[in-house]
Amino acid sequence: MKDAVSANRDYLAQIIGQYRIGKRDNMAYRVARRNAHNNDAQLTTRSVTCSPNRDVTALQLTKVFASCA
Nearest 5°: phi and psi at 23? Predict the structure, then answer.
């Protein structure tokens, strides 16, 4: 979960930068976007494979993520 949050933070920083200086599809932006999407997909996969019950609370889900890491 830590990696996903960090990757999304970096991606958001790239988006904010584009609002400041104008849209540019440079390598840093594309790498940040790819890392964020890959980490989100990995996080989703973990939640599906680690959670036996789909109707869990946020606190229970946090415990599941912590145990999978």
Answer: -70, 125
